[in-house]
Amino acid sequence: MKKQPKFAVLGGGSWGTALVKMLCENLEEVGWYMRNTEALEYLREHGHNPNYLSSVTFNTSRLRLTDCIDEAVSAADILIFAIPSAFLEKELNNLKVSLKDKTIFSAIKGIVPESGKIVGEHFHDLYDIPFKQIGVITGPCHAEEVALERLSYLTIACADKTRAKKVADALSSSYIKTKVSKDIIGTEYAAMLKNIYAIAAGIAHGLGYGDNFQSVLMSNAIREMKRYTKRLYNIDRNINHSAYLGDLLVTGYSTFSRNRMFGNMIGKGYTVKSAMMEMNMVAEGYYALKSAYKIKEGFEKAVKTPIIDAVYRVLYENENPKKVFTELADVIS
Amino acid sequence: MKKQPKFAVLGGGSWGTALVKMLCENLEEVGWYMRNTEALEYLREHGHNPNYLSSVTFNTSRLRLTDCIDEAVSAADILIFAIPSAFLEKELNNLKVSLKDKTIFSAIKGIVPESGKIVGEHFHDLYDIPFKQIGVITGPCHAEEVALERLSYLTIACADKTRAKKVADALSSSYIKTKVSKDIIGTEYAAMLKNIYAIAAGIAHGLGYGDNFQSVLMSNAIREMKRYTKRLYNIDRNINHSAYLGDLLVTGYSTFSRNRMFGNMIGKGYTVKSAMMEMNMVAEGYYALKSAYKIKEGFEKAVKTPIIDAVYRVLYENENPKKVFTELADVIS
Predict the structure, then answer these.
(1) Chain A nearest-CA residue for B179
(2) Which of A70, A249, B52, B82 has CB 3.0 to 4.6 Å from B215, enough for a Cys bridge?
(3) Residues near A17 by beta carbon (within 8 Å), at least 6 away in sequence
(4) What's the pLDDT tens digit per position in B110-127?
(5) Helix axis angle, B272-279 relative to B258-267, nearest 10°?
(6) What confidence tens digit (pLDDT) does each residue in A277-297 have?
(7) B66, B75, B81, B77: which is closest to B11 by C-alpha?
(8) CA–CA separation, B258 and A324 (whole Å)
């Protein structure tokens, strides 16, 4: 019998917790690394994560829990990273074990601040991992709905179809449907860009724009995402597939999205600093925006991104959101 | 000086009321026909429609109010029909004045039951109006947000660009942005199809599916709409423009949409009849569905429409919504 690959999830947040739950539907053993030792002890004792998706109960005999990243990485063939992009490089710096032979899937939506790259490119460029060993897991998928076992769809992207298929099989269940894709660049950038558009949606809401405007904003956002991802990596991509449009919609229309909430506060007149303090958490789109803007500035052929530009002017150039969005409203249609 | 065309709106519902409000921003005189004599008298006396968008105040000296359709039609060059499609033919049957030289714009989203045609085609085929005199006004636009003067975008479609431009100019204001299009077939069918997808969204919600599924459903709906409208009239159409995707989103994500509400009740187990009775109003998508299904059956080359098919099975073939949507969930992605 062929040896089954061993999986480990790295990260103890809500998305990491949801991924472990999905894997536990299929695998005898799932490795799970988290930094938070207290949460880990609690999990060992009570069978659920005290901080995220605490309604989900795990059979701990099937979890290989550890707060040592080396241990998690050594024991697994397929690593799924679900650590916020802002902390990824810090965690990787602690790593003594080689990643060379590992299959690395990113479930992270964002840009690694130290390199200004999306996670797949970061692993490829800084850790010398061949692209065929790198993959991406994208939604549309709120972790909270996985906890409730509400039917959700994931896209598993990897240049190597066999690897994509293995990960897809390990995640599929009665409430998770999966689809494989070759578009690791497009899916990962889309997952990152949608957080910026969710901030835009939030700003518009905070400024008092209604549902009519919101729908125009989203229909412009998907066209902008299409242009942007086409410049990055021009393959035959249907931008209206779930991994792109679906992911944009689930975030842009979610009142629970941290990015949308952050935008909403900005629209209501908070400064970036006070909005962040008030929320007491990180809106990933804020950091992603800086990189997305810079990357686009580097495109050989310029691309029109009025929404990204508008949010950038508000968040990084301290312009008045009302003025900027009045101008934005004139150029979208 | 060139004579300005005279406008009349036909219909006293919320969308008709919103259209009159928009026109009053620009025109000295707006004709307005409604069947309901009591509402008309109230409007004359109090300056607002007692039944719809009652917060909107009109300067009645600029309204040419009438409950006689012949009078309204005679006095105007450009007619904007905002009568529910189910009652349109009945109203037209009362008409003694010729429509031959009129420009006729439809602000109706649906299919005329007597002919099984969308409104533009109905006027063309049954009333011999040349296509260049026929146009369509589509959203995304909730009438309620027009009442609040929240920024909204309209698409004005007509084969004759000059006519489209005239109507667009008459509707544009500080809170209404307009865009002209040549795609009268595509925009009108899109406006009709989106009501069917809103019913689908409602059924899914009623069955307990969450936001993750909803976003996948909407991303499949827009692809289905693209295929359907392409078969009808194959022009270079960006389905992600506001008139198509935007209109789908504003309805599919609106908890106030009658079509979505109707679907929700069906998903929760109401029969079609009891849901209609409970709501005490017409869900246009219910009637549109029958025609949309029939039209598609007549396509020379078959088109995949899993969502329309599923809703049809539930509403017209009395199949169990849970079973049908479980099967639908397997074929969308």
Answers:
(1) A333
(2) A249
(3) A49, A52, A53, A56, A143, A147
(4) 889 899 899 999 999 999
(5) 140
(6) 888 777 889 989 999 999 999
(7) B81
(8) 34
Q: Is B131 exposed, middle or buried (0-12, 13-18, 19+ CB in 10 A)?
A: middle
Q: Are B213 and A150 in contact (CB under 8 A)?
A: yes
CA atoms of B1 and B59, how far apart (whole Å): 26
The pTM assigned to this predicted structure is 0.95
Choose, from B194, B296, B304, B323, the residue flagged as catalytic: B194
**CB spacing of A215 vs B329 below 8 angstroms:** no
Interface contact B140-A215, CB threshold 8 A = yes
Amino acid at B174: S
What is the C-alpha separation between A97 and A57, in angstroms, rounded? 31
Please say whether the beta carbons of A257 and A200 come within 8 A.
no
Per-residue pLDDT reduced to its tens digit, A210-239:
999 999 999 999 999 999 999 999 899 999
Query: Quick check: B64 and B90 in contact, CB under 8 A?
Result: no
- How far the first Cα of chain B sits from its last, in Å, is 58
Per-residue pLDDT tens digits for B182-204: 999 999 999 999 999 999 999 99
A296 annotated active-site:
no
**Secondary element (H or E) of residue A211:** helix A211-232
Cβ within 8 Å, pair B139-A212: yes
Are A190 and A138 in contact, with CB atoms under 8 Å apart?
Answer: yes
